[in-house]
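Deliverable D5.2: sample structural annotation.
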Amino acid sequence: MKTYQYLWRLFRYRPLLYTLNAVLWAIIHVAPLVPGLLAQQFFNRLQSATQISNAFWLIIVLLVATELGRVCLILCGGTVDSLHRFSINGLLKRNMLARILERPGAHAVPGSPGEAISRFRDDARQAEDAVSWTLDSIGSICFSIIAIVIMLRISVTITLFVFMPLVCMVAVTQAIHKRLERYRRASREATGAVTSAIGEIFSSVQGIKVAAAETHVVEHFQGLNEQRRRTMLRDRTLEQLLDSIFGNTVGLGTGMILILAAQALHTHQLSIGDLALFIYYLTFVTEYTQWAGTFLAHYIQTGVAFQRMDTLLQGAPAERLVAHHPLYLRGTLPAPSPNIVPSEQDQLTVLKVEGLSYRYPDSGRGITGIGFQLRQGSLTVITGRIASGKTTLLQALLGLLPGDEGEIYWNGQAVQDAASFFVPPRSAYTAQIPRLFSATLQENILLDQPHNPARLQKALHTAVMEPDIATLENGLETIIGSRGVKLSGGQIQRTAAARMFVRPASLLVFDDLSSALDIETEHLLWERLFQDQPPTCLVVSHRKTVLQRADQIIVLKDGQIEARGTLAELLENSEEFQYLWHGAGNF
């Protein structure tokens, strides 16, 4: 899509608000026409008058009233424009985030998180400015057309010189079009690299200190900042250079026009009132002419912003970036989803996987031709050495990675979109490294779920969280900090487990849930989980406690199934599993 096509769709998002905004700012920009005409009448009358009459006072009153009215319009226009800007910015961010949430987890954001933040913050703001500036363009064009018509009636020769600076600025902008794009893109990318580095440093403080790598990290960060400084300096210097060129061009043009006007006044081709009107209008026309040059440069940079935001769509049609959706800025927000009650179709009887494959584009590693079957109420454990493909298998099954090949069947029905299918009430998932937020413990567990005390208490009991809650300063209302910094590794894992247990699901998927748990707590958790009606579980683990409970064990090696069976069968027939069981290998 072209830049103007993006902008046109944004204009149509809130058409009434945009129209009201445009009308208000058109009136604001056109309003100075009236003082100019009043000034013309005032000086023409003053030139021939012998005393101040009531007409002079009327003109002065009208001048004051016009300016006061314009001030009121600017206040109203500013309020409407702020709301309109917020709507445009919010729509762009909403559409980018919606697409990110649709993508498989490993490919949700292309590039670094810092680069994505830059697109959400800087590029969305650039597009917001472009939409708002078109309103000024409408008003400026209306004023300039009317003012030029009035000035043409006074002097055609002098008025024609008004267009010369505009022609020069358009020529300059077109000449450096590519450089404007290149400098703005480099500036944004450098900013994204710095933002991403800040996030990585904050999340790896412990590792940096343990490795005594503070000096290296600081030097690396300084290097990124230096690169950002250079690229932003080039971008800002070019932008300021353009402003300077435009301003000087307009200044030279204004000087030429005033010289011609002075000559016309000397030869009595212009009256004093005509000269006053010309000078008054010329101020606005030249200001708008300079602004038009700046807007042309901004328009080119806005094209770069749309291209950068489009990369977050990752193959989706470009129209999705500016697709119209409600933002719920007023009124009642949509109610959160109620307690999910599984239907008969959601209840798992048999899950069948055939030929599931996925290879990471960069390394070529992954899984190939995976096939297995889960039955209701069974516990299936996936085990293997480090980098054997255990986590990749779970993520490809759940749609967090886009499988290259393979079929998945839920109760005999083919699953078309695993990412949207394997969610509560069908399945729930706890990752190897759970993601917690800087909120209360209860909020981290419930997230979007309504507070059901009985369900929450049962989830906490199953996750063996009661002793930990008793030690927290505010119990469930304790703020656990960014990524659960106030909790131990085992508490983080069990908080994530409680988050999963509080949501009804037919299939529970754990990725090495008990890796940070002591043997006693792990044993108690599995006892409570299987105490009532046994759930269907798919678990990545190397712990003997879990393997001894398993109905089926799948042994992975180099991304393929090496062996499959019960614990007794594998101990008898699988050399790979024997190697793992007796502790000679690493899981």
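Annotation notes: The chain has a mean pLDDT of 85. The radius of gyration is 34 Å.
The annotation will be released with the project's public dataset once the embargo ends.
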